[in-house]
Amino acid sequence: MKALRRKDLISIFDLAKEEIEGILSLAATLKDKFRKNISYTPLAGKTLAMIFEKPSLRTRVTFEAGMTQLGGHAIFLGPSDINIGVRETAADVAHNLERWVDGIMARTFSHQTVVDLAREASIPVINGLTDRLHPCQVLSDCFTLQEKLGSLAGRKVAFLGDGNNVAHSWIYASARLGINFSIACPRGYEPLPEIVREASAEATSNICVTHDIAEALSDADAVYTDVWASMGQENEAEKRRTVFAPFQLNSAALALARPQALVMHCLPAHRGEEIIDEVLDGPQSIVFDQAENRLHCQKAILTALMANTKRKGKGERRKAKGQVSG
């Protein structure tokens, strides 16, 4: 695929439709190579620094395994290794890492941390998750849906639950790819209005925020849910269980969508809360296909951003104020 316009992947909304389609196409190619045991090592000799402020199963394993399979190497940096903003500033971390490695993947609480890393570093920075956005997850979800449904334009994805980082990235992806997206959530837990406005202004599809489950799920080709209390919201968990109970993805809710609507969840799942076992493990569920595809989509992102880049020497650091999405 052609190189991306930006050196970083911070938000899906930074990507043009053609760039998203290029990533999904490359993911399909890399998945085929993986299943046929065909070696493909465009990142031979390259290293990815992986910054984790939050725990992870899928993000860590898929990025680390992905780098290995692409011929490169990944270094895990946990909270105690860096402690961005306390031990060192994001700028200082970026200026150190750009001298040693070829890319940075960061999974942080504050979205601004990833924005700051991308602004300061001369090497690619990938948003592995922030409290605002989760672009890698949703790109992989789109890849999975494309495998199952073919063209995504005109399809409808319904989201039950919190207007969180995953919902935000789905709103952006839907606007770019022509997907009709609806989210049903309790009052006070809607997606950020500025994200809805920004996406809706450019969308050719319908983006709907509602408190009515039936409205959201009507004619949905896929029904998506996520945990009710994300990392960092543990003190709200008990309250949220009560508030979100009517928005559980159960058999009755699923029946409001199309008869063969696909069931999606980014995992980890709190079984018996946002989703029941019967639905999560049922014949319409594709949640573990989503998890599998994190590997292939992550590899596509890494290849698109890092295959043709070179580390810059002293004095060559990119001056790119204003080029990084918030």
From TrEMBL:
This is Ornithine carbamoyltransferase. Carbamoyl phosphate binds at N83, R107, H134, P135, C136, Q137, C266, L267, R294. It comes from Candidatus Abyssobacteria bacterium SURF_17. It catalyses: carbamoyl phosphate + L-ornithine = L-citrulline + phosphate + H(+). It is an enzyme of class 2 (transferase). NCBIfam families: orni_carb_tr, PRK00779.1. Residues 154-304 form the Aspartate/ornithine carbamoyltransferase Asp/Orn-binding domain. GO terms for molecular function: amino acid binding; ornithine carbamoyltransferase activity. Keywords: Cytoplasm, Transferase. Residues 7-147 form the Aspartate/ornithine carbamoyltransferase carbamoyl-P binding domain.
